[in-house]
Design brief:
heterodimer, A: 74% helix, 4% strand, B: mainly alpha, 23 helices, disordered C terminus
């Protein structure tokens, strides 16, 4: 039975929310639709725990894999999915964040509720699909499919300038991904040239890509990395992010910061770096430098913001700069730190956006000067706010500390100067975040309107409480979590540093009785 | 004696393979006669509509049968048959085109019948002209030499000139028809000149003999001839810089007919270019310039289609520019074919893209026709505001079509473009592929601006408000089917295209066919045919 579930679990995770979206859309009653969406996402989360329970932490292979025919045989385009240490944490992050987001939408989304819920479930499907697909075309389809629900989520339920923001978001992302598509097409034929067989299997193309001449690799690296850098967003491609974040409704912001941005860094780690190790080495100084510029620039801009949401948006630019810098250090610490920081950023920034949503729903403003002294009126709110801030500024005890520490250590090994500069980002981060806390939560309660505010209701407290637990859980339970990723990160590091093809295989679970079958790729 | 007869009367298999064309032509004539003898010629005539509809059936059934089981109908898949001195090629490319044209014509007729303004158009001569135009397109798609090609081209074009100006009371329609006629006639003349110059060089009208055409630049008459021919076809396809008629004509014609014009006409012409380029030219090393010509045309088309579309707010004009941009993708495929004439992938990519593009554009124009039914001709972008609320079904379908035209998965357009790009990259057209992709991002602006109006803007006083009546239900079913088809193709990929054998038919020498005349035509034994062609 377990084996049978393992065989189908990833497809189930991808298509269950899609099916759920249909049911939600067909539900007559709005309130029932909300409950149904929460139930679907909770079931999805429980299903995803199967991955943790049965993941073989000693292996870097693609587990729970499934390899089915999709397009006609000759084209070599197949439906191939699997998770390894890299995608596992992100899949769990997605499935855990989604129920919380649905809970938060009870108050933040008031019109067109059913469409919102259905679109969001489609988005969840696409995100999980993109994280687990091991076929370039399948990945691309999910990658683009993520765009459409998000386009509508920002465009329909967003703020005043939502149309500008959502158009900008869409076009930025598509420009990058179309170039990536051309790179994929090139690889597809490069593989045919050498092996006389068409395939878009990522595992096969790792070999083809790594064997290409250095200058070809560099072009292909640039094309794919551009797509991912826009999504991250890496400085100087970040300008769509503040607009999108500020205009998006609270659930949209949470999932944008929590998962969608991670798609960029995930893509860099899954594709750009292991596929083109030689080009990655050539580009590494540039990428780390851009990361560090992003860290400092994002932090400085964040410091000057008066809009709370914009501040947190720019802090994302800064935090994801850490992630990019860490992974391009090409050592195990850097890779692990980058991956861990993705999770931490998802949790703490997600929490911050939810917190902003809580007061925004009450006051309909995001101006920092409108607030102040909320701690007196909303003690629980203040508590959660401080916890999320602690996670964001990477206080020891939170996951952010471990992530940033690993990244800085990793970068230091390759470039002490850049690591030092990145370190100032930590300080700046503390400054602007604590400044935010000071302005919003502490200080005298002067604004008359704030005196009428009510504290978090149980639903909000539950969401924020859960995320607060995660902020600390990632801090104290890092060893068991990272144990799952270690073999993958080790292998990634080795293959990149030896400038050789990244090797992995599919572990396919067959039937209910047969033992694990490892499919070795040729 | 029988040899001579054989040249005049082709074998029974010909009538089977050409049944779609013959049915269209006969259907058209009968519909016209019905108009003359029955009823008021100024009023819509349902009988002629039904005749037209029924005469589309062979072009759906016969190709399906022939594509599903080619060998059981006397055709050898490795050597498909050709008749009438290569004037009619019975290969799978033709059958595939027949299928698209047949379904598209049925769709157009049906759309006209169920929309209010369309029904007013359904006079007998409309049915007749549509049938003739479709027959012309089919003749184009199955032509293997210049004579049949030109016959088909003129049959199609002349019918279309009239169809564009079919609404006699509409000044804009008359203007469009006049423009289309003058420019189209010029293009035909240019094509004819090109044909003549090519004939001068090869001494043969058959496209199979183009292999002897020396297209190196040292042979100026062949080069000029081919260039003139390509330019003329580019005009008919609406490729920049020969595109300027497109937006005006599309805007002037009734939306149902615009959908027909922007899709099926291209099917015919694309097949012609596919056949000509797919033959390859003599002096293959010297024919790289042909790819360069298409390089330039592709770049111009995508640029014009993407940039000029930005400034318009008439939805039809935007879709016209979108189809110019999409014609640029056809040029990408032609450039690929010019470099690799025998590439099976490139040919299949063209077929797949043609079919997908037809589905998407027919669907989009059908929705426009439906919306215009309840407001007025020539819908503006702003009038779509709030459509997502007022007519969610139409809005969802239109969104699917627009995303498909923009090439965003999971709508169908993605795989079409993906196949074109991969086959282009395989012959080293990486630069052109990048240019196409980057420039097509510009066109996203106007595709998105339509989506913005539909979904993100509240309805205003001038917004369209489609009526919910019996017609609307029919439209819903029809458009829903097309939208579902485009989603299915987008999700499972164009699987069917791999089953199509894109080999061109070659003429079987007459003496091989001779013994077939002896046997009873109806009971043709497929086995003997297979054996004979194997000789």
């Amino acid at each position: 039975m377990v084996s049978l579930i393992s065989q189908w679990i990833l497809s189930l995770l991808i298509f269950f929310p899609l099916l759920g979206a249909l049911f939600v859309a067909l539900t007559k009653d709005v309130q029932k639709a909300r409950h149904l969406a929460v139930a679907i996402s909770v079931i999805e989360m429980v299903l995803s725990f199967h991955l943790i329970a049965h993941f073989n932490a000693d292996s870097s292979a693609m587990q729970f894999a499934q390899d089915l025919a999709w397009l006609p045989h000759g084209s070599g385009i197949r439906y191939t999915v699997g998770v390894d240490g890299l995608s596992l944490l992100l899949v769990i992050l997605t499935t855990v964040l989604c129920p919380l987001v649905f809970l938060s939408s009870y108050s933040s989304i008031e019109n067109n509720v059913k469409s919102f819920l259905a679109l969001f479930l489609v988005l969840e499907s696409a995100m999980i699909g993109a994280l687990v697909s091991l076929d370039l075309v399948l990945f691309y389809v999910f990658w683009e499919a993520m765009l459409i629900p998000m386009y509508f989520i920002i465009g329909v339920w967003g703020g005043k300038d939502r149309i500008y923001a959502t158009t900008k978001f869409f076009i930025y992302t598509v420009v990058g991904s179309l170039l990536m598509l051309v790179a994929f097409a090139y690889l597809y034929y490069a593989h045919y040239e050498t092996n006389r067989i068409f395939t878009t299997s990522l595992i096969e193309l790792y070999k083809t890509a790594a064997a290409l001449p250095a200058d070809t690799q560099l072009w292909l690296f640039a094309a794919t990395a551009l797509a991912f850098a826009i999504k991250v967003p890496l400085f100087p491609f970040h300008t769509w992010l503040p607009d999108a974040h500020v205009q998006a409704p609270t659930p949209g912001s949470v999932i944008l910061a929590g998962v969608l941005l991670k798609m960029g860094t995930y893509g860099l780690m899954r594709m750009s770096i292991p596929m083109f190790p030689e080009a990655a080495h050539t580009a590494a100084p540039v990428m780390i430098t851009l990361g560090v510029i992003g860290i400092i620039y994002g932090a400085l801009i964040a410091w000057r913001q008066t809009d709370i949401k914009k501040l947190v948006a720019y802090s994302s630019v800064s935090h994801l700069g850490f992630v990019v810098a860490g992974m391009f250090a090409f050592n195990e610490l850097g890779f692990t730190g980058a991956l861990y920081q993705m999770v931490n950023h998802g949790v703490s920034t997600g929490a911050l956006f939810l917190l902003i949503g809580v007061v925004y729903e009450r006051r309909h403003t995001r101006e920092m000067s409108e607030y102040g002294g909320l701690a007196k009126q909303m003690p629980w709110y203040a508590f959660f706010f401080v916890v999320a801030t602690m996670g964001s500024v990477a206080l020891p005890g939170t996951g952010g500390f471990i992530g940033e520490w690993m990244i800085l250590n990793g970068v230091f090994q390759t470039s002490p100067v850049l690591a030092t500069l990145a370190g100032t980002g930590v300080i700046l981060g503390a400054i602007y975040m604590l400044w935010l806390v000071l302005k919003v939560v502490w200080g005298p309660l002067q604004n008359e309107e704030n005196k009428k505010l009510s504290d978090c209701n149980p639903r909000e407290a539950f969401i924020l409480g859960t995320l607060s637990v995660f902020v600390f859980a990632t801090g104290f339970l890092s060893t068991p979590m990272l144990a799952h990723t270690e073999p993958t990160m080790k292998k990634l590091q080795q293959s990149v540093n030896n400038k050789e093809a990244y090797k992995t295989e599919l572990v396919i679970h067959r039937g209910s009785d047969e033992p694990l079958r490892v499919m070795m790729q040729r | 004696m029988s040899e001579n007869l054989n040249l005049v009367f082709p074998s029974a298999a010909f009538y089977l393979h050409a049944a779609p064309i013959l049915a269209m032509l006969i259907g058209g004539l009968v519909a016209l006669m019905v108009g003359v003898f029955r009823g008021n010629p100024d009023r819509p005539n349902m009988l002629s509509y039904q005749i037209g509809f029924i005469s589309c059936f062979p072009s759906v059934i016969v190709p399906l049968l022939l594509l599903a089981a080619p060998s059981s109908f006397g055709a050898n898949p490795t050597q498909p048959p050709a008749w009438l001195g290569s004037g009619f090629l019975g290969d799978q490319i033709s059958q595939f085109a027949f299928l698209i044209v047949g379904l598209g014509t049925m769709f157009t007729l049906f759309m006209a019948e169920i929309s209010n303004s369309g029904r007013q158009l359904l006079r007998p001569e409309l049915v007749c002209l549509l049938m003739f135009a479709s027959a012309g397109i089919m003749i184009l798609a199955s032509a293997g030499e210049f004579m049949a090609f030109f016959t088909g081209l003129e049959l199609m074009s002349v019918s279309l000139y009239v169809l564009v100006g079919y609404q006699r009371a509409d000044v804009r329609g008359m203007e469009a028809a006049m423009k289309y006629f003058l420019m189209g006639a010029t293009a035909s003349a240019i094509i004819l000149m090109g044909m003549a110059l090519i004939y001068l060089n090869t001494g043969s009208l058959r496209w199979a003999d183009l292999a002897t055409l020396n297209v190196s630049l040292s042979n100026p008459f062949a080069v000029i001839g081919l260039l003139l021919f390509i330019c003329g076809l580019a005009f008919k396809l609406g490729i920049a810089p020969f595109h300027s008629w497109g937006p005006d004509v599309y805007q002037g014609a009734h939306s149902t007919l615009t959908g027909y014009m922007s899709t099926l006409v291209k099917v015919g012409i694309v097949m012609v270019v596919l056949r000509i380029l797919g033959n390859g030219f003599g002096g293959q090393d010297n024919s790289a310039w042909i790819a360069k010509v298409f390089w330039v045309l592709a770049t111009l088309s995508i640029l014009v289609g993407s940039v000029f579309g930005l400034v318009h707010n008439s939805v039809k004009r935007m879709l016209a520019y979108s189809s110019i941009a999409n014609a640029g993708y056809f040029c990408l495929a032609f450039a690929t074919l010019a470099l690799a004439p025998k590439s099976v992938e490139a040919r299949q990519a063209v077929l797949a893209y043609t079919a997908i593009y037809t589905i998407l554009n027919l669907g989009a124009f059908a929705i426009l026709a439906w919306l215009e039914d309840s407001s007025r001709e020539d819908l503006l972008k702003e009038e779509l505001a709030g459509l997502g609320k007022r007519a969610p079904f139409a809005a969802v379908c239109l969104t699917i079509f627009i995303l498909g035209l923009a090439g965003i998965p999971p709508a169908a357009g993605f795989f079409g473009k993906f196949m074109l790009i991969t086959s282009a990259v395989s012959v080293g057209l990486l630069g052109l592929a990048v240019v196409m992709v980057v420039l097509s991002c510009i066109s996203l602006f106007y595709y998105l601006s339509i989506l913005v109006e539909i979904w993100l803007k509240p309805a205003t006083r001038s917004s369209v408000n489609p009526q919910d009546n019996e017609d609307a239900r029919d439209v819903r079913v029809l458009v829903g089917l097309v939208a579902a088809a485009s989603l299915v193709v987008g999700i499972i990929g164009p699987r069917w295209v791999a089953t199509i054998n894109p080999t061109f038919a070659r003429e079987i020498p007459a003496r091989v066919e001779e013994p077939q005349m002896g046997s009873a035509p109806a009971a043709q034994d497929p086995k003997t045919t297979g054996m004979k062609t194997g000789h």
